[in-house]
Amino acid sequence: FFFKLPSDSFKYLGWCDIEEHSVRGNQLHCPRVREGPSEEELFFRKEEHILKKRKQVTDTEKWEKRLQENWENCAELNLSFQDLGDLYQVENFKRILRRLIRVEKLWLVDNSLTDLSAIRLPRCRELNVNKNHFTSFKQLPKIPQIQHLSLAENNITTLSGISDFRHTPLESLILKRNPCEFQERYRQLVFSNLPNLKMLDGIPKLPEDCSPPDVRFFYRMCAIL
Q1: Residue 158 and residue 174: Cα distance in Å, rounded?
Q2: What total number of domains does the chain contain?
Q3: SUPFAM superfamilies this protein is in (predicted)?
Q4: Which residue has the higher pLDDT, 214 or 39?
Q5: Mean per-residue pLDDT for 119-129?
Q6: How far is it, in rounded angstroms, from Cα 30 to Cα 27?
Q7: Is residue 128 domain-resident?
Q8: Which of these, 138, 202, 142, 140, lies nearest to 171 by C-alpha position?
Q9: Fewest CB atoms within 10 A around its CB: which of 54, 89, 107, 181?
Q10: Where in the sequence is the domain holding 148, given as residue range(s)?
Q11: Which CATH number do you get for residue 74?
């Protein structure tokens, strides 16, 4: 037998669509911001009865929702595991990211993200985008104040574009379980592109991580036996 839960009628509603509460975005550390299925999708699922008939939204209601979604005031936010299954959900997700002008710590883990290059996070110091589908550093958002960046379990194949972070205060970088990790002289290449980096994949910068002297130098030396 299938028994409906009391919350069943709310399962496709965003937190700000639920009536009679005044919770704002910056009060939630892990909000569910994914939009629910469209009316057409619900019809195919035979779940059209779940949502009440959608009324025409007034300008006042739109403004009240915008005030409730006060993403501009968020300093720390976790938007991981959003299950963004449709394009309109991805676009809504990016709409929210564009409003995070004050966020300093942001987690976007496991969201199947591929390109956030159009997003700018001017105050972000810590960004975790583990378990996504990035293939290049060029696809990351603009993060001029980044200090700690985690990119584990993506599909970054080369270190091309990593030098863009040379002029940021980046201190620690995690690239574990990316194809670029298997590149010859991987650690030396990363540190040569990012001379101010202090830690890579959880391991502090070691003397052997510094680029070795130019090999041609040794050809100008003679060994006396």
Answers
A1: 14
A2: 1
A3: L domain-like (SSF52058)
A4: 39
A5: 98
A6: 9
A7: yes
A8: 202
A9: 54
A10: 25-209
A11: 3.80.10.10
Nearest CA among 53, 57, 109, 104 for reference residue 81: 109
Residue 7 lies in a domain: no
From residue 16, how far is each of 21, 31, 222 by CA, in Å? 8, 10, 75
pTM: 0.80
Is 10 a domain residue?
Answer: no
pLDDT of residue 215: 43
Q: Are 192 and 186 in contact (CB under 8 A)?
A: no
Instruction: Quote the pLDDT of residue 34.
Output: 76
Structure token pair of residue 178: 């990316």
Within-domain flag for 20? no
Residue 64: both structure tokens together: 């009240």
DSSP secondary structure of 169-198? ---EEE-TTSGGGGSTTHHHHHHHH-TT--
Residue 61, token pair as written in the block: 């209601």
